Amino acid sequence: MAKDVKLGWDVESLNKAYRQGYMAAEMGMARERCPYRGDVVIAAWEAGWEDARVVCEDRGGDDLFSRIA
Questions:
Q1: Cα-based angle 17, 10, 29 (whole degrees, multiple of 5)
Q2: Gene3D superfamilies from the xrefs (predicted)?
């Protein structure tokens, strides 16, 4: 897989960051708790986080834990 050596990211790592951001928002984690460094990977994590929050709001504001409890 192609990787930009200067930036330290590839499509696979961006997909992983997006999925982790999505899961973090589903679990109610604050956006400020992003575990990544580097603007591009942070942006991918935040995009996942934001997408999950929109879905959560569409469902009435519930999160993962309220659905399984």
A1: 5
A2: ribosome modulation factor like domain
